[in-house]
Amino acid sequence: MALNNNLAKKPPVNKDLQSTTFQVNGMAVTLTPAIVRNYLVSGDKEKVSMQEVSMFINLCKFSGLNPWLKEAYCIKYGNEPATMVIGKEAFLKRANRNPVYDGSDSGIIVSDTETGEVSYRVGTFYAPTEQVIGGWAEVYRKDRAHSTRVEVGFEEYAAKKKDGALNSQWSKKPATMIRKVAQVQALRESFPEDLGGLYTAEEQGYEETLPAVGEIPLEPTQEPEMKPEAPTPDVKAALFGDE
Fold first, then answer.
1. For the segment 103-152, what is each residue's pLDDT rounded down to a tens digit?
2. Of 49, 222, 230, 233, whose Cβ has the fewest other Cβ atoms within 10 Å?
């Protein structure tokens, strides 16, 4: 009779293929370290650690976030710790699902470059003679007598390059960016149970750099081809082949 050799070496487990599946609003989301690294990390993908990838997967799982809907993604630059960021739409979705949410208002704070007069605007429109100096947002709850209002300064949050110049998004869309910061802060303060501990890229000095929808695989649960000694293939080529 043949005996099993319990001391025989077992083949190594490929951690890149270990999957985690969870439910988000009735939809099954399956993530693996390989999928996160290839499709959901912005910046230096090759430098993100397994620990950082695991943290991202657990953030999505326990916070009920679907990264394929741009609700969460990871940013990694050089040897700096990876940053887990949440899309603004995830904040709005959470608030809208809460039965006590009663709407919100938001806009920008501008200063007239000629007179110095400061004005509050709803939305993001401002004149060529005005400078955006801040943003504001107000969130209402049906179960509270008073709203939650937040005002934020532009200089405190505007992301800049090493030379001190504003990065592309903040220079092209200053009103949109600072209004977004005010919105998510007001929502987080209004619903700490749902949004506590979640932060957007704009609040942390980054640009929202998740790949466009066309660059995300159509079947996110499908494993990408792993070639340890070769660069990761282009997503489009991996899915559709050479045209």
1. 999 999 999 999 999 999 999 999 999 999 999 999 999 999 999 999 99
2. 230
